[in-house]
Design a protein that fits this description.
Layout: H1 6-14, H2 16-29, H3 34-53, H4 64-79, H5 82-97
Helix pairs in contact: 2-3, 2-5, 3-5
């Protein structure tokens, strides 16, 4: 047994890394509405984590143009909002770095 309280271990594994990344983003970007930005960051990180657990949807081959149009719209939205782009980049970074290592086993 590791000697760490179960609740602390749970928080250290599931919350602290994401929260620290969000706080780093706040310190770096200093938004006018830090709690709102942090809240959105945490929601995005949670959604990314859920998506990692589910298989990604596949687009039918008859709809590649629709997929391309959707990606263009997303790109335009994030390009025009640097704060949103920063949040998305940071949450993607977290989801990539906090993914469990499959080589360690269950």
């Amino acid at each position: 047994m590791s000697g760490v309280a179960p609740s602390r271990e749970y928080l250290n594994e599931n919350v602290t890394p994401v929260l620290l990344e969000g706080m780093k983003m706040l310190a770096r970007d200093r938004p006018e509405n830090p709690l709102q930005v942090l809240g959105q960051f945490l929601l995005n990180a949670s959604q990314n984590r859920q998506q990692q657990k589910q298989p990604e949807p596949t687009f039918p081959e008859s709809q590649p143009q629709l997929q391309s149009q959707n990606m263009d719209q997303i790109s335009q939205t994030t390009d025009s909002n640097p704060q949103l782009r920063s949040m998305i980049d940071a949450s993607q970074h977290i989801s990539q770095t906090s993914a469990p290592d499959a080589s360690n086993g269950p």
